[in-house]
TrEMBL record, chains A, B, C, D:
Origin superkingdom: Archaea
Protein name: Heme-binding protein
PANTHER family reported for this sequence: PROTEIN GLCG, SLR1406 PROTEIN
Ranges that cross the membrane: none
Organism (species): Halobium salinum
Annotated Pfam families: HbpS-like
Signal peptide from the UniProt entry: none
Alphabetical list of InterPro entries matching this protein: GlcG_carb_metab_protein, PduO/GlcC-like, PduO/GlcC-like_sf
């Protein structure tokens, strides 16, 4: 059994992220996945980039598969650093820039959110709106 | 030109399909895609099979890529018939059993819906609830 | 968090399956996976077929992804039947012949076992030795 | 001729690596492969990252496929150096950071070990425990 996030909660997180994406006027693709990185729900906002369909899904996958926020992976993966080459491992699913975040309950990762569609700072901003909503719901 | 369906409409179709899935007590994965077969929205209902994540997405893809309902492909793909072997073409994305349907406007395919999670008859039943909702919205 | 099977238990199941494989004098590849079909442990017995590395892994994946024993999928997937074409969906990971089994606890699938290396009847025999061991450990 | 390592030896190397992983309190995925890079045995320790399943397997593959320790590949693969781009060749299986090692007998590579799950320095530390065990067994 996978302890996961109910679909209803997943779509609430996506709604919160979509609201933020509308505020900053940048359509995004938003994915919520379970703790094994498999999809629970994914929405592509009208006008969001096609590439973001895979990128948001893979950000959610990466946050589960390496149990980290994806922006934490960038520096170590640069040429000359210890994980240089990380982004081409694991069948091309590892994303090493920001926008993927774990969702935790009692210190355990029970799901993840991945957002793609704008500058990385915008992706992170929108994903964090989903993470914030998760924390409100968890209180 | 790629015709598409707004995300808001896509989630309405998914809601209608989910309602039907609950009525028949069979959790499903439901995907709505655009006329190029690319994802607009996908929901995995709580308890739906993992394999259905890919299969529902690929049913939606197939309905767009071959401009047909997927159950129309089964017979022609059988040994001895004209399209025998179809299901292994196109990078493994072609699904030849039921549950994928085009969504039309004025005789043009503008999107598709794909459902997976039960017996094929159930997948079709649930997908058709989404198609019915599309037709209501189009009137 | 994935409620899964500890590695120690997984290797006990593999040991039981290996014992049976030795009894019938047929080297096998044996995989134990978690409830999302991801690997916990895999052993290739000396002399087992190379193809069985992927096949045993995919039998374990299939048992998780469709929540079934893989031999249950054969009939429905034959030409003319409802799931004809199933075996080429889901990125080629679906195996529709015997040797993959769910491992249950309190009615929930918490893992799977997949065996490949001989005739299907032998694969099933060896996998069932692993399932039997699971049931003994669960008592 | 494909040289290989008996399954029994492979699991001994994995045991030695697991012992070291427990000492440094970092769960790892450990793979032993034959001289063609194909799996003999793989264990995912409880709590090890999902991504490490593929990465450890591919470190073992790379050590066989290029007949080298994977950490030897990093520098040459950096921009401006002779093998820049190496990591995206060979269907995404090449890993260019540390944790994959050849296992030699009489100067011939007869197998490999790949470890993933922590910082690269930890992966190497744990993999080297497996290599050390190999050398003890070979004496």
């Amino acid at each position: 059994m996978v302890e996961s996030i109910p679909l209803e909660t997943a779509t609430e997180l996506i709604d919160a992220a979509e609201d933020r994406a509308e505020e900053i006027d940048n359509p995004m693709v938003i994915t919520v996945a379970n703790s094994e990185g498999n999809l629970i729900a994914q929405h592509r906002m009208d006008g969001a980039w096609l590439a973001s369909v895979n990128i948001s899904r893979n950000k959610a996958y990466t946050a589960a598969a390496l149990e980290t926020s994806t922006h934490e992976l960038a520096e170590a993966s640069e040429p000359g650093n210890s994980l240089y080459g990380l982004q081409t491992t694991d069948e091309g699913r590892i994303v090493i820039f920001g926008g993927g975040y774990p969702l935790e309950r009692d210190g355990e990762i029970v799901g993840t959110i991945g957002v793609s569609g704008g500058a990385v700072s915008q992706d992170r901003d929108v994903a964090e709106a989903g993470v914030d909503r998760w924390q409100e719901l968890s209180e």
